[in-house]
Design the sequence.
């Protein structure tokens, strides 16, 4: 299966054989996704001795995100699916961003997380960072992941997802990722003003019957560091903030269940999730 996402500044492509990733490529030239996407796909296939016809299917991030970027990725995926007569699976780009971080930055076994996973501890000044681990001995093993894509003017494309660690006895084999934690969508994708969105998250965390141990902001966090820091100071749990680039491997892994169920998207009907009107559309409506 081929997985692609062009919804952010990172153009990313991954190739899978079953659940094994054969390779992954990234390119940060946001304004040139249309130039590099097909050559990157061809290069990745060629390196693995494959032709497009050998693919079992395609997975694509459908947004939200950059209007032009999302359109490029979805158009290429639809065109390939139609031309090759292969199934195509649309995946939320925000969920892929959060899921990629959930897999790569945090561990559920109590061992140290990679150094790049950083937390703003409760009561700390905004911006003061300390290494974050997911400790299986905590009362709550729930972590909320909040993907952020800067939508300008203080707005973000965002959603909310929960990773819930599973407790095990020593005689249980839990090497499989699907057994290591559960993954749940808590809020639909949308566009939010960051300041009130942080307040909503705090209200949800404090009023939830299943209180999370931490809230982790992933993606375009730098423009909102002060807001995240204020949440860290006012909420009793841990708050983490980490820049993280989109990875097509996460898009592919989120599509695995759809592939197993034989539930592809309609190649003709698959549409980008733009979430909001484009600037041109807003200007047009303003003149009506």
Sequence:
């Amino acid at each position: 299966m081929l997985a692609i996402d062009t919804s952010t500044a990172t153009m990313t492509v991954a190739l899978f054989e079953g659940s094994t990733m054969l390779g992954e490529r990234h390119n940060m030239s946001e304004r040139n996704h249309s130039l590099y996407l097909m050559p990157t796909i061809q290069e990745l296939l060629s390196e693995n001795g494959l032709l497009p016809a050998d693919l079992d299917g395609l997975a694509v991030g459908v947004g939200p995100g950059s209007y032009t970027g999302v359109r490029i990725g979805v158009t290429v995926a639809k065109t390939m699916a139609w031309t090759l007569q292969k199934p195509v699976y649309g995946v939320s780009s925000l969920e892929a961003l959060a899921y990629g971080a959930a897999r790569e930055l945090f561990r559920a076994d109590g061992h140290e997380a990679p150094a790049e996973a950083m937390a703003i501890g409760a009561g700390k000044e905004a911006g003061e960072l300390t290494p974050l681990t997911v400790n299986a001995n905590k009362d709550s093993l729930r972590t909320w992941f909040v993907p952020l894509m800067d939508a300008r003017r203080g707005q973000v494309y965002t959603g909310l997802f929960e990773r819930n660690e599973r407790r095990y006895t020593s005689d249980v084999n839990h090497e499989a990722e699907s057994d290591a934690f559960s993954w749940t969508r808590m809020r639909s994708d949308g566009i939010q003003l960051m300041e009130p969105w942080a307040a909503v998250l705090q209200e949800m965390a404090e009023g939830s019957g299943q209180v999370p141990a931490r809230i982790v902001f992933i993606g375009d966090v730098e423009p909102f560091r002060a807001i995240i820091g204020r949440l860290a100071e006012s909420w009793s749990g841990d708050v983490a903030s980490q820049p993280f680039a989109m990875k097509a491997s996460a898009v592919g892994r989120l599509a695995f269940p759809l592939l197993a169920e034989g539930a592809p998207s309609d190649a003709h009907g698959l549409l980008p999730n733009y979430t909001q009107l484009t600037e041109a559309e807003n200007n047009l409506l303003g003149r009506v």
